Amino acid sequence: IDPRLDLFAEIERLKRELNAVILAHYYQDPDIQDVADYIGDSLGLSRQAAATDARVIVFAGVHFMAETAKILNPTKQVLLPDLAAGCSLSDNCPSDRFAEFLRAYPGHIVISYINCSAAVKALSDIICTSANAVAIVNQIPKDQPIVFAPDRNLGRYVMAQSGREMVLWPGTCIVHETFSERKLIALKVRHPDAEVIAHPECEPAVLRHADFVGSTTALLKYAGTSDRRAFIVVTEAGILHQMQKAHPDKLFIPAPPEADCACNECPFMRLNTLEKLYLCMRDRTPEVTLDEATRLRALTPIERMLAMSP
Ligand code: 13P
Ligand code: SF4
């Protein structure tokens, strides 16, 4: 790329030329968030993808998110800046192993977190996100056994909130599992007035210190409604950009991972860069594609989620 190119202006131009909408997750680089038409959590992004009348969806997020947009929009082109932007939850729940796992639980309803492949969605009855998981499980009749996959931490959190037992697939998010309870307690001592706000993908030992637990959108909203001035934020650090932008008068402290590393940044989300976003729009590739049989089977549980979501 010519270093003199104004990428922000070029992306705006391409957006008009392609009749494209840019959907971005909160864990994207701040630059990407700033060129997006919509920034949201997985539920908000799915709803936007279902509603858009743009011809091209440029998805600044990870593969399962772009794939969900494609499942909802088979005739639209869905571009993803880097096709390698995966997710540890999705990658560690391959559909063949999941199908085998499910054979041990006949008669169970299968609720899968949206962080999974289209092939796993196709094996599921209902999809959920961190924003609606508790509400969806609460709508399932009490005597109906449930398999919940692939995030065991979200699963445990939902079990605690709903009082339901569920069979859990043993997956975790490599970002949220690195937050350290020990360091979090030390940080709380230094900031006794700060509220701890955390994503439900965190380990139970971390979540038990949280004053509020929710999806990325819920955490952002909570930071606005709470009258506290300081927050320890236990999720991927990209969300701090919108928190700081919306509430410049408040203090947002990223929670520390156990090791001294940038582990509170998702290595998959961060594969997308402003340059790659520009290039994928200029070249109209890489594109997310799906075989129609899988798409149709994955669509039903997503549609159920959208209908059951508060
Ligand atoms: P939400 O933005 O839906 O809370 O999900 C977080 C996440 O890990 C996305 O990969
Ligand atoms: Fe997956 Fe975790 Fe990255 Fe979200 S933060 S995309 S759950 S690896």
Automatic annotation (TrEMBL):
What is the protein's name according to its record? Quinolinate synthase
Instruction: Offer an example of a GO molecular function term for this protein.
Output: quinolinate synthetase A activity
Give the binding site residues for iminosuccinate. H25, S42, Y113, I114, N115, S130, H199, P200, E201, T216
Q: Into which EC class is this enzyme placed?
A: transferase
Q: What is its main location?
A: cytoplasm
Keyword 4Fe-4S set for record:
yes
NCBIfam families, A to Z? nadA (TIGR00550), PRK09375.1-2 (NF006878)
Report the superkingdom from the record. Answer: Bacteria
Q: What is its EC number?
A: 2.5.1.72
Q: Which SUPFAM superfamilies match?
A: NadA-like
Protein task? Catalyzes the condensation of iminoaspartate with dihydroxyacetone phosphate to form quinolinate.
Family listed? Belongs to the quinolinate synthase family. Type 2 subfamily.
The source organism is Gloeobacter violaceus (strain ATCC 29082 / PCC 7421)
Q: How is the cofactor bound?
A: Binds 1 [4Fe-4S] cluster per subunit.
Can you say where in the cell this protein is located?
Cytoplasm
Q: Pathway membership of this protein?
A: Cofactor biosynthesis; NAD(+) biosynthesis; quinolinate from iminoaspartate: step 1/1
